[in-house]
Amino acid sequence: MEPVVDNPYLADYYADIQRWSFALEVFFLKQRFRDIISINQSDETIVQDRSIFEGVYIFAANNRDMGNMSDRDYQTYMELFEQMMTIVKMPDLMIYLRSSVAHLVENIHKRGREYEQGIELKYLTNLNERYEDFVLNKYKGRKLIIDVDSIDFEHNPSDLSAIIDKVDSALFGLFGPL
Question: Which residue is catalytic, options 49, 73, 147, 152?
């Protein structure tokens, strides 16, 4: 689960991204690493909302490339990540919920979190482009891509059921990943 409510940096980050990007990204990295340790120790099937890989290759890289994180801070962050990766196991399946930027903006407005309302369109566009590149070109594990602009899996049980069927097929079906 993404630590939003108890995140001590998130509101500060959106108020002054350059000042708080390194601290926020390290906080998320620590949280995701802790989640991975718990997942590895569990016998249960676990769905993780956001992986350690996304935090690194999408969010932290975006902050660096947009000038919100210095090269020095980014190098320190990456060295910490690389040490963590020596004990991390790849997920059984990465599910990418592909969305247009317009749909992302709509979801942000629906969520109503005050600190998210001023997010720049360029920032969201950069994140979306990085997700596409990461999932299609960089991520080497098993993956399932689901376009979500025209579905409502939160309120429509048949949309959720269709997603579950795709996940089951990718994990256990005869035809492998879709």
Answer: 49
